[in-house]
Amino acid sequence: MTTGGIRMTKRTGAFILGGLLVALLLAGVVSNFASAHPDGLDSSLRQGCTFDADDNIIGGSCPAQQSRDHELADSPLADYGVRGIDNSYLSTGLSGVLGVLLTFAIGGGLFWLVRRRPSGGATEQGTPAGQGAGPAQAAQAAGAGAGAGAGAGAGAASADAASADARN
Amino acid sequence: METLAMHISNGIINGPVAAAFAALALVALALCVARGRQDLDDRLAPMAGLVAAFIFAVQMLNFPIFTGAVSGHLLGGALAAVLVGPWVGALCVAVVLIVQSLIFGDGGVAMLGLNITNMAILGTAVAYLLIALLLRILPRTVNGLAITAFVASVVSVLVASQGFVLQYWLGGTTDVGSSLGGLAGTMAGVHLLIGIGEGLITATTVVTVAKVRPDLVYALRSLRPIPAANPAPVGGGAR
């Protein structure tokens, strides 16, 4: 963490950690007790067809008939299971844990990369003087962020963000 | 057909319509990045990562509805909108959908634009409009916040489900003809119940966060009257 976040970091960090633990528990354990029935979208698309015990369409006409395999159906984590683990509780739970960690790493990482960067902690100090010095620094930070290659979307957006910062 | 599909799978909507919505979603997400950067400071960035991870976790928890032969799960737009705001919130839901599609084989890669448009863009936008309205007219109490989160969830899930009906009308691969209205009705009925479940989960989560760390609830932060001594309503940790 850089200079800007020092004051909030500890408490916020504890909250984030606690929240992550809850998410890991939900995805790793509670997920095994989730309903296995088709969800609202899937069931709506199955209206009009009849299914056998193995969930294959045996008659009728419905949108779900056109459903094709996923491009990445062979992914090691496809269908919320870990390939190679036969125990279904372990497989589902482990895939959930990996999913939560991956989502946090990818999401949190991207958000951290494109965040608004205070130079020299001006934002965190929050004094009127600090805010007064803000616009030029903020514009600089926005430019630097785009330069760091934060992603195509962020790059396209940087000019917009910088000018909006300057208006603040 | 044993796959666990929670989002639009391949083949349901035709290629051109899916591609058009992919382009639409890309433009919308770019706008969200541009506007979201205003909100994303050192505190909101990790919070947004947590919100995405939490939505991923709760989306795995399909709860039974109706007689138990149908299930539903959280979409997350309302939860994200309350906690991290509309722009970053839409990005959170989009991150979840992208991870699910690319790593967990849930929701066709070619259908990603459709799923993002419905759940990340439409769902979050509708939720935030309602949140902004309701937090102004309802009392500033725990109950007011809970009702806001609940109503925003129900409506956002309903609108997202009708987003799919619109997409199906434009490019559905099975000719449902005059029964498109039937599909709309079925989707609305099921998703009203899913929305109620989502509303309960969202209200519980939001109220819990608001009790522990009210300063981490974006919707409360941005609508709070600004004291004269503090001229920076979105000034990061300024408090």
UniProtKB/TrEMBL annotation, chain B:
This is Energy-coupling factor ABC transporter permease. InterPro entries: CbiM/NikMN. The keyword Ribonucleoprotein does not apply. It is a multi-pass membrane protein. It holds the Pfam family CbiM. PANTHER family: METAL TRANSPORT PROTEIN HI_1621-RELATED. It comes from Plantactinospora alkalitolerans. Its main location: membrane. Gene3D superfamilies: 1.10.1760.20.
